[in-house]
Amino acid sequence: MPWAAPRVCSAPGCNVPTRSDRCAQHPRRDDRPSSSVRGYGSRDWRSRRAAVLRRDPICCECNAAPSTTAAHIVARSAGGDDSLFNLRGLCTSCHSRETSARDRGFGNPRGR
Fold first, then answer.
1. What's the CA gap between 29 and 31, in Å, rounded?
2. Which one of 15, 18, 65, 91 has the fewest CB atoms closer than 10 angstroms to its CB?
């Protein structure tokens, strides 16, 4: 079977051709714990997620796409818990937009 054509390393600013996602100089750092270690692999979480997706079949943010994710209103890292009152159904697009904004610090009140 023929090899795929080389492409450019996905590390910012690197133009080295590679046959995988990253070149040898820029290996992908995967220091994030697995979802099970972070608490999303338990039977309790799976049943809560299913309950949220039944309660919110349409995304609570855009009101257009089907919900695929049970998202925290107040993040665990900010003191939120896994109660059904702190969870809402979001589509993948809205959840990605919400978590990337939170993780990069956008939308935080001034002085924080």
1. 6
2. 15
Contacts (Cβ under 8 Å, ≥6 apart) of 18? 6, 7, 8, 9, 24
Q: CA-based Rg of the chain, rounded to a whole angstrom?
A: 19
Q: State the amino acid at position 36 in one-letter form.
A: S
Q: Per residue in 35-47, pLDDT tens?
A: 788 788 889 999 9
Task: Show the tokens assigned to 30.
Answer: 């995967």
Return the bridge partners of 25, or none.
Answer: none
What CA–CA distance (Å, rounded) separates 72 from 99?
10
Cβ burial 53-73 (10 Å sphere, 16+ → b, else e): beebeebbbeeeeebebbbbe
